[in-house]
Design brief:
The protein has one domain. Helix content is 88%, strand content 0%. It is built from one helix and no strands.
């Protein structure tokens, strides 16, 4: 596995992690402020 591919994969996983976190925050907001 090349270093460049691993680097791109790392960036993608970080981006997905942030997306999931913001989705969770949105769900918590809906539940709390329902």
């Amino acid at each position: 596995m090349s270093a460049v591919f691993a680097h791109k994969l790392n960036i993608v996983s970080i981006w997905n992690y942030r997306q999931i976190l913001s989705l969770l925050a949105l769900m918590v907001k809906w539940i709390v402020f329902d």
